[in-house]
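subagent[fold] <- orchestrator: predict structure for attached chain, return tokens only, no commentary.
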Amino acid sequence: MLVLWTLVITVATVRRVQRFGAFRAIANMAIASLMSGAAWAIVIRIFVLQPFDIPSASMKPTLLVGDYFFVSKIAYGFSLPFSPPPLAGRIFAAEPQRGDVAIFRLPSNPAVDYVKRIIGLPGDRIQMKDGVLIINAVPVQRERVEDFIDDETGAAIRRWRITLPNGVSYFAIDLQDNGFLDNTSVYTVPPGHYFMLGDNLDNSVDSRVQSVIGYVPFESLVGRSVFIFFSIRRADGKPSVIRSERIGRTIQ
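subagent[fold] -> orchestrator:
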């Protein structure tokens, strides 16, 4: 009742101040509310949370094709759009952590966004040897767990639980032995840069492919993936299915 009377008084006030009829006063208030809501949505998208979706399989099993998720744009600080030189750079900048699932702009084409996991920090030495991730000459801990069942193809794929040096644990899949990127040279991460790796180890264009991605500068990081807000499976020849069990899932 209090809300109703507040609304009536507000409409009456708008009518008197703007000399509108009741209908026009209500319409004016509705338009103002919509514009205010849209403005807040734009502010949130620019500075706080931005939605993204997954178009490829490079982050299976953590992120599936058809997942829609939010990215925290304040996780690593944020940049003011169109900032002049004195205000350029990040405000409240924070260091990315090993194991973060991050969105970044492709260094060679900032119009393209990628999502990968941060594996190497500045100064780290990264290598793959026989499919095992090695950080600073020490193989990461990995444990064979139950197979990942691909809900698009039904295939059972080898899955590992990988534990990074800082204790972050996640799942990765391994499609084949002796894959193209299972054995690499040693990558030394330059200052101010990060080494990105897909969780689908044999099917990911990431920092191992230096000609395409290489090392990612801090300035190219958009934010950290937070949680999935919608997910749908669209497989050829099959009806689309909403993956309700994935909605609200935290990305780790």
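orchestrator: received. Logging for downstream: Residues 1-20, 32-47, 82-88 have pLDDT under 50 and may be disordered. The chain has two domains: 2-45, 50-246.
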